[in-house]
């Protein structure tokens, strides 16, 4: 996945981490180098056994070294927790170029090789399938260079492939005696200069290179070169000795992070080898998985068909012809609509299982993309974890729509609550409130023909009244969670939420840019009492003509922990990133949209140089 520039990625942290790791590596990892047992396994059987999978991301591929990207160094217990959660495979991304020397040998630092081997062995010891790759080295493999004679950009593949072969020679030598559950992935996301601009459409992001002073302005790698790379690296691994003649090797297509299936299939040609697996990544639709353009929900018929079409195309082109597939990365941002995330994860993983594709979840440990909290050894969303694991094993999950149901404070319950069921072959057994089972026919009614459940208004009124607890009738937020117990898969929650309108600060917030040379240096935090509501999205337009301020073609901002054109929120406020604030050139209007969806709050941003004055419109608050 693309590197995430976290605000925590600062020089002081890097410096302290590097010092720590240098001390950490002084005690070089050592182990008995005798051969492990190796039982050759077909690529098809391995892929079947690897579902579901998980990525130890932003760790060994971090730049310049492990620990640089807001994650502590990996610990052995991580793999206990991953296996206990039900995952069967682990992908360990590794960046090498910050750990090897100059030409012609490009010798990898022995301490780094030892560290990678140590982490690999921790995972293998727990009988997990393990993939290691050459990760952000894809940048130098794909990069064009400048011809000193002409000053023009030229393709550098001839030099890059020699360098890559030197690297792979060392990796293959070190890991050649590992058992059959270690897989080697040739290269992460080979780059071809294309990037998704809008929706699933792929366009040329960089255009024709113009500046000879900026060799990083353009990446260029053709599918034919990727085909050649795969062939040469696979051949090198096969000749490296040990068990590598039958070890499974994972090969990519061009730009396998961003291109739609059609582009990858266009000119891909696999090496003539029976122990290989094709890999691609899947983050589509990008606006939903990365919470851009206000797209926080997912689950329409068309959206599900896009996933089905992807899997079917891969099946027809590769799997049916003996080349199985691993989706090496996929996932969604934590703060997207939770039901949409559960549904997306279920659908992608179960579709992969249906077509024989192993899907390995990307988990980078950062706040917005973290599933497993490595420091505290807990899962941030147990339901999401269980949905993913079940679907990846072919266990059907059932769903209810919606799971969050809002009731305005000081409002009587006058109607029953009806939710839709998607059983997926399961049966609804019971509904519980904590340990107490609801009475079917009295507290709720099931319509098996229309697949609905109706919670009776009298029961809801009792939940929201809390007559036996002093002051509870005024409590905001989740009042009760009803558990839907299905015959297989996860138990689904139905949340009863009491809410009031969110409360923004009174008066005007003023930012003075006069002391910072007209540039805002820090994010803006708006204190907000959410009162049981949840921020869903934010739009930003010119106050007069209502046109979007940003260049995305949509008024909606991106929810992210990055420092540029994005926003975030906590339990106590909304964070507007400094990139957004510095983009304001005219009087502007922010609109904050909440769940339940009929709540909107507007905030004016008026420019009176060197000041920006933010005022909430009281009519909407």
Beta-strand level of the residues, as a percent range?
15-25%
Order of strands side by side in the largest beta sheet? 1-2-3-6-9-10-11-12
CATH class of the largest domain: Alpha Beta
Bulk shape: globular
Rg from Cα: 26 Å
Structural class: alpha/beta
Assigned CATH architecture of the largest domain: Alpha-Beta Barrel
The figure for the number of domains is 3
Count, helices: 14
Query: What is the residue-averaged pLDDT?
Result: 88
Distance between the termini: 39 Å
Low-confidence stretches: 2-28, 195-212
Largest sheet: 8 strands, parallel, barrel
Helix percent reads 25-40%
What is the fold named in CATH at topology level of the largest domain?
Answer: TIM Barrel
Number of strands: 32
CATH superfamily of the largest domain: Glycosidases
What does this structure look like?
The chain has three domains: 11-392, Glycosidases (TIM Barrel, Alpha-Beta Barrel); 399-499, Immunoglobulin-like, CATH 2.60.40; 508-620. α6 packs parallel to α7, α10 (301-317) packs parallel to α11 (338-355) and α11 (338-355) packs parallel to α12. It starts with 10 loop residues before the first helix and ends in a 5-residue tail after the last strand. The chain has an eight-stranded parallel barrel, surrounded by five helices. With 621 residues, it is an alpha/beta fold. The protein is built from 14 helices and 32 strands.
């Amino acid at each position: 996945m693309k590197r995430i520039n976290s605000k925590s990625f600062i020089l002081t942290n890097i410096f302290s981490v590097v010092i720590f790791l240098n001390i950490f590596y002084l005690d070089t990892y050592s182990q008995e180098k005798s051969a492990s047992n190796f039982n050759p396994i077909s690529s098809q059987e391995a892929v079947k056994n690897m579902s579901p999978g998980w990525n130890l991301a932003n760790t060994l591929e971090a730049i310049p070294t492990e620990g640089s990207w807001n994650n502590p160094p990996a610990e052995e217990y991580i793999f206990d927790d991953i296996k206990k959660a039900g995952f069967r495979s682990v992908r360990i991304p590794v960046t090498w170029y910050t750990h090897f020397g100059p030409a012609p040998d490009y010798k990898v630092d022995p301490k780094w090789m030892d560290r990678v081997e140590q982490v690999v062995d921790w995972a293998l010891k727990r009988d997990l399938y393990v993939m290691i790759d050459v990760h952000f080295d894809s940048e130098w493999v794909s990069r064009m260079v400048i011809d000193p004679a002409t000053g023009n950009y030229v393709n550098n593949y001839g030099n890059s492939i020699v360098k890559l072969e030197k690297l792979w020679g060392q990796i293959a030598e070190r890991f050649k005696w590992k058992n059959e559950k270690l897989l080697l992935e040739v290269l992460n996301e080979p780059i071809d200069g294309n990037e998704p601009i809008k929706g699933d459409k792929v366009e040329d992001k960089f255009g024709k290179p113009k500046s000879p002073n900026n060799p990083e302005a353009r990446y260029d790698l053709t599918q034919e070169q990727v085909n050649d790379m795969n062939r040469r690296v696979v051949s090198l691994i096969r000749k490296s000795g040990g068990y590598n003649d039958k070890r499974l090797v994972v090969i990519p297509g061009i730009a396998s992070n961003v291109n739609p299936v059609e582009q990858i299939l266009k000119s891909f040609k696999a090496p003539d080898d029976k122990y290989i697996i094709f890999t691609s990544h899947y983050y589509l639709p990008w606006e939903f998985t990365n919470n851009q353009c206000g797209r926080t929900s997912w689950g329409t018929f068309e959206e599900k068909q896009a996933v089905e079409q992807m899997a079917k195309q891969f099946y027809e082109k590769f799997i049916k012809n003996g080349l199985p597939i691993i989706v090496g990365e996929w996932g969604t941002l934590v703060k997207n609509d939770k039901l949409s995330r559960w549904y997306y994860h279920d659908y992608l993983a179960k579709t992969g299982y249906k077509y024989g594709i192993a899907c390995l979840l990307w988990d980078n440990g950062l706040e917005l993309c973290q599933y497993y909290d490595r420091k505290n050894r807990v899962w941030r969303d147990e339901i999401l974890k269980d949905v993913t694991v079940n679907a990846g094993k072919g266990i059907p999950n059932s769903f209810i729509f919606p799971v969050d149901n809002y009731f305005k404070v000081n409002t009587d319950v006058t109607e029953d609550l009806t939710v839709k069921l998607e059983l997926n072959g399961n049966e609804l057994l019971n509904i519980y409130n904590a340990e107490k089972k609801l009475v079917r026919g009295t507290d709720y009614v099931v319509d098996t023909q229309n697949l609905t459940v109706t919670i009776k208004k009298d029961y809801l009124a009792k939940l929201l009244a809390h007559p036996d607890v002093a002051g509870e009738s005024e409590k905001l937020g989740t009042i009760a969670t009803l558990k839907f117990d299905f015959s297989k898969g996860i138990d689904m929650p139905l949340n009863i939420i009491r809410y009031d309108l969110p409360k923004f600060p009174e008066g005007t917030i003023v930012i003075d840019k006069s002391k910072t040379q007209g540039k805002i240096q820090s994010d803006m935090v708006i204190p907000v009492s959410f009162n049981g509501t949840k921020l869903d999205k934010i739009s930003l337009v010119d106050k007069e003509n209502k046109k979007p301020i940003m260049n995305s073609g949509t008024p909606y901002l991106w929810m992210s922990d990055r420092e540029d054109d994005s926003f975030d929120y906590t339990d106590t406020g909304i964070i507007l990133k400094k990139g957004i604030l510095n983009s304001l050139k005219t009087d502007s209007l922010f609109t904050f949209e909440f769940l339940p969806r009929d709540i909107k709050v507007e905030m004016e941003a008026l420019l009176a140089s060197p000041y920006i004055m933010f005022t909430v419109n009281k009519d909407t608050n």
